[in-house]
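Most newcomers find our protein records easier to grasp once they have seen one. There is nothing in a record beyond a sequence line and a structure line. Getting from the letters to the tokens is the skill we practise here. An example says more than a description, so a record of this kind follows:
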Amino acid sequence: MHTKVDILGIQVSSISLDHLLLECSDIIHNNAKASICITPVNSILAATKNPIVKDIYNNANYTLCDGMPVLWASQFLGTPIVERITGLDLLPTLLEYCASNHFSLFFLGASPGVGLSLKAKAEKLYPNINIKGVYCPPFANKFEQSENDKMISLINEAQPHIILVSLTAPKQDIWIAENLAKINANIAIGIGGAFEVTAGLIKRAPYWMQVSGLEWLFRFGQEPKRMFKRYFIQAPLFIPLIIQQKIKSILIKSKGNA
């Protein structure tokens, strides 16, 4: 079990990566099911505007802190999250962990060819890794029923322990919430764009940028057109909302002490 921290009404998991992997192992050994969402600032902001997404994040077994701003916000609010766990941190560690513990995987999504590149890279690094399937569905805001049935069928034929879903957030998290009960897998993780980076198709920011909260700037430099709205229109809304949450919590405490 782990605690959760309220960030703008989203219950974000306060857990270390090592602890998360141990809990994943328990879930698999107990043949249970779990969903893992990875929530950067833009996902949290999307959830504040969409009650369906908010419910999905708050009902997921794990809603991970992706991004230094979310970590800093938790500290500012006086409820510090144990560790930032991005998809870029989780995926390579998970591949090694699965290879060592004989847990099987299925890769769903990303752009055409990316999943196969990741599979080749993973099998080169860990020859005994068991990747049971790779499938890239055609792009769609919402999948046709026939396509969704095909995806579920492929996964159920493969029977992996873990399915990694790269469909961008919150689309990937909605898909997992709607289909987890139908798929023959223990754990479904919305992994975002980590396929491309882990496969070596896109570079990750240097470590000093990661820990100083500047990874977003590196990403913007790679894809300025796609990332402009996220970083310069959506993200600035996060700070005043966090300040409002802090003020509200102070007022509630002062009333309670009156």
Observations:
- Residues 3-253 form one domain.
- The first helix runs from residue 17 to 29.
- The mean pLDDT is 94.
